[in-house]
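Need the bound structure for FE2/S2 (inorganic) cluster, inputs here:
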Amino acid sequence: MTSQQAPVTRCDRVAPGHHLLELDCPAIATTARPGQFVHVRVTGTFDPLLRRPISLLLCDKHRGHIQILVRTVGRGTDVLGHVAPGNVLDLMGPLGNGFPLPEAGQTPLLVAGGVGVAPLVFLADVLQNSPEGSYVRGLFGARNEDSLVCWEEFAGRCEEFQAVTEDGSVGEQGIVTEYLPAQLDRGDVGVVYTCGPRPMMAQVGRICEAAGVQCWASLEQFMGCGIGACLGCAIATHTDPPNQRVCKDGPVFDARTVDWEKTL
Ligand SMILES: Cc1cc2nc3c(=O)[nH]c(=O)nc-3n(C[C@H](O)[C@H](O)[C@H](O)COP(=O)(O)OP(=O)(O)OC[C@H]3O[C@@H](n4cnc5c(N)ncnc54)[C@H](O)[C@@H]3O)c2cc1C
Ligand code: FES
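Answer from helper R.:
Posting the output first, comments after.
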């Protein structure tokens, strides 16, 4: 992990309240694994004081570029979404453990909710381009068409892809967890990867556990240091010790080990 000064090469609005940033950062682009994140200093001052954690959406090792997808929720992400190309951002990364890759012959199913699609696009990209060329299946749920952000980047990296929106504006109507059991009933999914709203991931974890399928979930939590020193990002788990740091022990956890009742 290193601190990098990364020039912004692109900052585009890709959907209402969502911006895609591309940064020139070879040190991160060449080493990062899917599921890892960068900790971004939002401005050149200490206001806001804390960095903001953002997943890696894609890494281009040849050009030395990384991409991140930012959803505006508060001041920090609002500033990030309006950074001009040419500006330089201070990044720490790549941070976190990342997703364990599937075992040989395992079919992976990637289940995304909203902006949680970001780390799964990177995972799909790596799996599709791996020497074994995994047969990747994707399931992506969001409130409506506007929130199904970067679906083309996701769908284009999956052999099979299903979209679900609450209002039915794209794909099936409903919530993503209603469509998961049918995917698992086909009997060929060996491992599930999920990222999205916490209640969605809790339900994905429960469905996978009932079906006897391994599930890896990427969690979000408020962060201070981002490197395991402040304990500000701890979540309750069934492991020993019972609290794990999302920044260092995660953000990816075996869904069975997360104490969803205490973390919701
Ligand atoms: C490992 C990790 C990866 C992430 N990847 C992405 C990503 O790829 N794209 C993206 O847009 N966002 C991502 N996030 C969430 C992002 O870090 C927060 O949205 C951001 O920190 C909010 O900062 P802010 O200054 O805009 O909002 P603040 O003003 O700090 O907060 C505004 C609101 O957002 C909520 N919030 C703040 N931080 C978080 C958080 N970490 N998790 C959940 N809710 C929060 C608060 O409840 C608050 O109401 C990720 C978070 C983690 C931990
Ligand atoms: S944010 Fe400091 S330990 Fe995780």
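Comments: The longest strand covers residues 2-15. The mean pLDDT is 95.
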